[in-house]
Amino acid sequence: MQSHPQPDISRTAARPETQTAPGQAVRLDGVELSLGSGAARVHILKGVSLSIAPGEAVGLVGPSGSGKSSLLMVLAGLERADAGSVQVAGQELTGLDEDALARFRGRHVGIVFQAFHLIPTMTAIENVAVPLELAGRADAFERAAAELTAVGLGHRLDHYPAQLSGGEQQRVAVARALAPEPRILVADEPTGNLDEATGRQIMDLLFEAQARRGATLVIVTHDATLAKRCDRTVRLRSGAVETDAAGIPA
Ligand SMILES: Nc1ncnc2c1ncn2[C@@H]1O[C@H](COP(=O)(O)OP(=O)(O)OP(=O)(O)O)[C@@H](O)[C@H]1O
Ligand SMILES: [Mg+2]
């Protein structure tokens, strides 16, 4: 995950737009991705094709370096595929410019990272509200307070990230991801920095959002217990889909 750029939160804010066509939540076809330049250039994704139904929970597993985080970045609109088709929430992402991609992320994708990625100079409520405010939502702070309360942090609204535990910081990140009511939630090892019980609470919040809001959930994980909670497991190896099966990973 470290090799990917930090998300620019100001550019991932929600903005009202017209509805897109219904259908698969995610549809990837022959996706190729190379990153880095010169000798450091790496061919990461090699012809990845994958469809995910609306409301489905998919666990993305595979060895370190197999391209899980990279694939998540592509389907979240944070990395641009070199070739192939990337359709998310009914929209083709290849060919969108940076501004259009940022609007797409703001409307449709909630992102949770292993390392929280909160803005250290902002309080919990500001971390959640400011992206909403930038997107023009008049009720940004009310909405942020409601989301933080829903994740059990109603009593920590004015704390800075450094004043919060790891689990609390990840709750803020979850509230921030859920606040724009995205249709797709992606999480890259969201429990990787947390103890088992705290990790389970974070996962409960994500699965609850999937169930209650009908969001599609894509989770990168090394945790077999977590993968088992998903409807389906996609295993990557060397940048390609190795297995794609309902239920428990092999
Ligand atoms: N910006 C980049 N430039 C060059 N190579 C990169 C870049 N980002 C990732 N890579 C390489 O792409 C490959 C896949 O990386 P990725 O982070 O997607 O793997 P991963 O499956 O998420 O691994 P892990 O389980 O360790 O997080 C790795 O070999 C990595 O070194
Ligand atoms: Mg990774």
Automatic annotation (TrEMBL):
Question: Is Nucleotide-binding a UniProt keyword of this protein?
Answer: yes
**What one GO molecular function would you report for this record?**
ATP binding
Under the heading PANTHER family, the entry gives:
IMPORT ATP-BINDING PROTEIN, TRANSPORTER, PUTATIVE-RELATED
* Protein name (database record): ABC transporter ATP-binding protein
Query: Where would I find the ABC transporter domain in this sequence?
Result: 26-250
Can you tell which superkingdom this protein's organism belongs to? Bacteria
Q: Where is this region: Disordered?
A: 1-23
Could you tell me which SMART domains the record lists for this protein?
AAA
Q: Which family does it belong to?
A: Belongs to the ABC transporter superfamily.
